[in-house]
């Protein structure tokens, strides 16, 4: 016996002029009927026999287990002989070898009547059909394993970039995607779709970008596909893809260094929130005025180093691990952060608890999270706190950094956008932030229903052009604006 296309062609050709059993057998090759167990059961009925299909180890794969001469079965399975026949005790037995890519099986047919020409033909052709089905199944399974392994590898590369390990990420990527991460900068895009079509969307992203981008099924959000690309043409590729798919949106970051992949990812998620309200379903993160850019760089750098100084006593790799986890943990939930980093959520919480303890703060306080986020963001943007420091810069505290005329002007302009709402959304937002972004606690303070608080906060998002209900950069900027105008109490830090 051969197999593959030759076997299929021969089986179909020989069956063309044969009776109904041949056509019934070929029906099992149709996509809806490809089941080896059903073929074995059909054979048992077609030749009025007991049939079993077993692998080289003797394990029954389909049919009814039969007592066999193990030496004879082993000879057939090994290919020493292609088939065998045995008669005795009122039974007639046929053994046929069924080859497939990873080994061989033995098809055993036992009946009370001798095998005539008809029964022999049915057994022979059935063995060929089973060979085709096993080969197709193994080929498909191998393809699934390969796709899964490749997807896992892409995720591993992204996770390395998320914790700023660009050297390891490049080393892992070099084997399968040479040159993919050779560039110093890249953009991150996040596509959102129905989770049911996410796999198809990811496959189209890979095809559209010609595998010149890192395409990852987001481990944290079922409907998201993350695309990291050093090519400018990727934006157009993804935009055309979104145009063809209803209810699909894409948000993109600005160009960032590979070490700032986590920052770029946060920007893409923020832009995605805007894309949901746009007619073309796409948005790129707007390089709006951020509060840290309105502060004295030297003073801000020195302040950030002072706030994070309690962590400096840790070994370098431990400090880097804690800071990378905290940066992501402040942007996303513990569960989402764990999935992105490939660790358990308990590990994420333990690392952040340690940072809380060392800094002497409580991350349940939104203003605390906002200030730590500012310090960590400054550390990345301003070369890990290394820079000239002078006595004046060292004396600056957070209150002084936020009280500068440029910062306070920015804060007033931002929050005054809410003053036109007769529902006093500004007060609701302030109370909600002070309550740790907890709608129930804010509702108790305001004497309203928790759903009213959520509706007010949600209505503030398009006005402020910031995503508030999901913790992250947008919420922290609004919290800093409240601190700058004196509407929220300044948090205290051990390092200040």
TrEMBL record:
Name of the protein: Helix-turn-helix domain-containing protein
Highest taxon of source: Bacteria
PANTHER family to which the protein is assigned, alphabetical: CARBOHYDRATE DIACID REGULATOR, DNA-BINDING TRANSCRIPTIONAL ACTIVATOR ADER
Chain ranges of the PucR C-terminal helix-turn-helix domain: 334-377, 426-481
Gene3D superfamilies the record matches: PucR C-terminal helix-turn-helix domain
Pfam family, one: HTH_30
Lineage: Bacteria, Bacillati, Actinomycetota, Actinomycetes, Kitasatosporales
């Amino acid at each position: 016996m051969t197999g593959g296309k030759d076997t299929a062609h021969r089986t179909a050709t020989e069956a063309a002029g044969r009776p109904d059993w041949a056509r019934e057998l070929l029906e099992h090759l149709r996509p809806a009927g490809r089941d080896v167990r059903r073929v074995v059961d059909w054979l048992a009925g077609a030749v009025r026999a007991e049939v079993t299909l077993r692998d080289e180890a003797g394990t029954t794969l389909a049919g009814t287990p039969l007592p066999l001469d193990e030496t004879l079965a082993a000879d057939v399975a090994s290919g020493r002989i292609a088939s065998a026949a045995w008669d005795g005790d009122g039974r007639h037995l046929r053994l046929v070898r069924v080859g497939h890519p990873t080994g061989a099986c033995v098809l055993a047919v036992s009946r009370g009547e001798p095998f005539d020409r008809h029964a022999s033909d049915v057994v022979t052709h059935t063995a060929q059909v089973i060979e085709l089905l096993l080969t197709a199944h193994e080929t498909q399974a191998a393809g699934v394993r390969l796709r899964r392994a490749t997807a896992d590898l892409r995720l591993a590369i992204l996770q390395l970039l998320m914790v700023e390990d660009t050297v390891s990420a490049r080393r892992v990527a070099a084997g399968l995607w040479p040159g993919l991460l050779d560039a110093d900068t890249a953009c991150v895009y996040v596509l959102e779709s129905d989770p049911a079509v996410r796999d198809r969307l990811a496959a189209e992203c890979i095809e559209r970008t010609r595998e010149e981008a890192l395409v990852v099924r987001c481990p944290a959000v079922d409907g998201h596909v993350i695309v990291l690309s050093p090519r400018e043409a990727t934006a157009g590729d993804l935009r055309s893809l979104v145009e063809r798919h209803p209810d699909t949106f894409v948000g993109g970051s600005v160009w960032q260094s590979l070490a700032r992949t986590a920052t770029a990812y946060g920007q893409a998620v923020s832009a995605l929130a805007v894309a949901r309200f746009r007619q073309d379903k796409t948005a790129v993160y707007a390089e709006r005025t951020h509060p840290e850019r309105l502060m004295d760089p030297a003073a801000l750098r020195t302040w950030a180093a002072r706030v994070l100084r309690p962590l400096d006593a840790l070994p370098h790799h431990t400090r880097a691990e804690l800071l990378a986890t905290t940066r992501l943990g402040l942007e996303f939930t513990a569960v989402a952060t764990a999935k992105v980093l490939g660790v358990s959520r308990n590990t994420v919480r333990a690392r952040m608890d340690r940072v809380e303890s060392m800094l002497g703060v409580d991350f349940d306080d939104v203003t605390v999270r906002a200030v730590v986020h500012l310090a960590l963001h400054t550390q990345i943007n301003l070369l890990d706190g290394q820079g000239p420091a002078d006595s004046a810069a060292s004396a600056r505290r957070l209150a002084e950094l936020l009280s500068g005329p440029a910062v306070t002007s920015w804060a007033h302009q931002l929050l005054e956008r809410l003053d036109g709402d007769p529902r006093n959304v500004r007060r609701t937002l302030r109370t909600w932030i002070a309550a740790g972004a907890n709608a129930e606690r804010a509702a108790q303070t305001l004497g309203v229903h928790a759903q009213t608080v959520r509706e007010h906060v949600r209505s503030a998002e398009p006005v402020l052009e910031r995503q508030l209900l999901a913790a992250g950069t947008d919420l922290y900027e609004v919290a800093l604006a409240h601190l700058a105008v004196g509407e929220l109490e300044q948090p205290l830090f051990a390092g200040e």
